[in-house]
Design goal:
6-stranded antiparallel β-sheet; 2 domains; Elongation Factor Tu (Ef-tu), domain 3; 314 residues; Gyrase A, domain 2
Length: 314
């Protein structure tokens, strides 16, 4: 079954994203001790994918973070969980010289994609994912591609002129987000997944050499005890979907086989989704959205290799 895919070229506003600012002499050290990735060694030309976990190793939020200035770090996250995440992180600042605030209102957030975006950015376009650069007063972060199309995060002061690019709808941008294979925790999926379920360690979202952070022992044990039993994959389907919906396997209809992580609505209606599923469900039978008789999920290409062997039963 072939489903329509959008033309991923242009610029889209990102109202579903927000920014947390960590500012102060201890900002990097504080985040280093709270998140799954290394912020102590974060360079000026780098961005980081990172997770914020509970003590049980479950993701409460996911971030793309970068240094806006030497003692000023911005964290992009899903807008619907920003307030709760900011409140929780603030509880652990204690005596650290770090001030956490909601900086969403200070900036214009846009997603840029395709050849037109690359040409508009010119030599300022970072050449590899998680590279960061400056362009005409804005910060540009290279995100992992969707198919063969480059994607960039563009962050500028609220009153800055917008990029001179074709308009790209939010649904098309979210399709690219899904097909990049990089999960974003939303309010509906808080406390549902350990990082490996979302392939975070495969795409640079976990540093196993850094010091402790909440849930670190669980995340490390999940890594070293053997092959993961649940992973995330991209699917298309002839229907719409939303984060947090359950997925069922035709051969085991009595219990969920997975959960939608992120979803994008396309014309038709049809959709694409990134879903966390049991590896055992990828063999015979079929996967369905919502209930065992729901819309069938059609596997789509993954942009990176995902181990699919399971060493133990769920």
């Amino acid at each position: 079954m072939s489903l329509p895919h959008p033309a991923l070229d242009g610029a889209a506003d990102l109202p579903d994203c927000g920014l947390i600012r960590a500012q102060g002499d201890d900002a990097a050290a504080f985040l280093h001790g709270q998140l799954t990735n290394d912020f102590a060694q974060l360079g000026a030309a780098q961005a980081r994918l990172a997770g914020y976990c509970s003590a049980k190793g479950r993701l409460l939020a996911s971030f793309v973070g970068w240094k806006q200035a030497p003692d000023d770090i911005l964290l992009l996250c899903s807008a619907d969980l920003l307030a709760a995440t900011l409140k929780r992180l603030s509880m652990f600042v204690l005596r650290a010289k770090c001030r956490l605030t909601d900086a969403t209102g200070e900036f214009r957030l846009m997603g840029l994609a395709g050849d037109s975006a690359r040409q508009w950015l010119g030599s300022a376009a970072p050449s590899a994912p998680w590279g960061k650069a400056e362009h005409a007063g804005a910060t540009v972060v290279r995100l992992p591609d969707a198919g063969s199309q480059p994607r960039f995060l563009w962050v500028a002061p609220r009153d800055a002129a917008t990029p001179e690019l074709p308009s790209l709808g939010l649904d098309a941008w979210r399709w690219g987000e899904v097909h990049s294979g990089v999960a974003r925790i939303e309010a509906a999926t808080v406390d549902q997944f350990v990082p490996q379920m979302l392939n975070f360690e495969l795409i640079g979202g976990v540093d196993f050499k850094k010091g402790c952070y909440p849930g670190q022992e669980v995340v490390a044990r999940s890594q070293y005890r053997g092959t993961a039993k649940r992973r995330s994959f991209v699917f298309d389907l002839p229907a719409s979907a939303s984060a947090g919906q359950e997925i069922f396997h035709s051969g085991d209809p009595g219990q969920p086989a997975g959960m939608v992580v992120n979803a994008a609505l396309l014309p038709g209606p049809s959709g694409s989704l990134l879903a966390e599923v049991k590896l055992a469900s990828l063999g015979d039978g079929s996967l369905h959205l919502g209930d065992p008789a729901g819309p069938r999920l059609v596997p789509a290409p993954m942009p990176y290799e995902v181990p699919v062997q399971s060493s133990a039963a769920d």
